[in-house]
Amino acid sequence: MEYVNQRVAQEAAKTPSEIYTGLVTPLNIILAAITLYTTYLLYKPSPPATLPREQPAIVFRVFTPRTLLPYNGENGMPVFLAVRGRVFDVTSGRNFYGPGGPYENFAGRDASRGLAFHSFAEDMLTKDLDGPLDKLEGLGPEEFESLKGWEERFLSKYMVVGKLVAQGDA
User: Fold this and answer.
1) What pLDDT does residue 13 have?
2) Is pLDDT of 35 > 90?
3) pTM of this structure
């Protein structure tokens, strides 16, 4: 018991500066650093908000089969295709309608007949770019329903950027 009394007396005899030097330990320094860093992260200023870049405005215009042809997604051009006289900007679907996509032969062309028949064949596309537009003759009720479905899908997903007319009507 005498040892305990002796230790209590030693601790009571210490000066205040000796007591506080025990607080500066490596563990306390690490805890203080973590606290300061966390406080900094909570209250640091955030970078200014940046607005998304606006897409360039597309003016509604009249296309002929020949003027629509360059809009096939090659050489950095947007991807347009026509369905029943309406020209759609399908650039956001470039993976499908652009170069290398499954519907790439419709890019820059009137895709009405090919979509109606669910055919990617070249003979479904207008060959004479300076001739009259395809009147879609020979389409049955099923093909017209299919074409209307495609047109509704395009209207819901893509922007109409123009209309397709024959070369002589431009």
Assistant:
1) 75
2) yes
3) 0.65
Nearest to 77 by CA among 85, 86, 68: 68
128-131, long-range: CB within 8 Å, 24+ apart, which pairs?
129/64, 129/65, 129/66, 129/69, 129/167, 130/65, 130/66, 130/167, 131/166, 131/167
Task: Retrieve residue 159's tokens.
Answer: 């922007």
Query: Which one has a higher pLDDT value, 154 or 131?
Result: 154
Sheet arrangement for strand 61-63: 61-63, 159-164, 86-89, 80-83
The SS3 of residue 50 is coil
Paired tokens of 9: 């007396």
Whole-number Å distance between alpha carbons of 18 and 26: 17
CA 123 vs. chain centroid, Å, equals: 34
pLDDT for residue 77 is more than 60? yes
Dump the DSSP string for 106-148: GTTSB-HHHHHHT---GGGS---TTSPPP--TT--HHHHHHHH
DSSP string, 19-35: HHGGG--HHHHHHHHHH
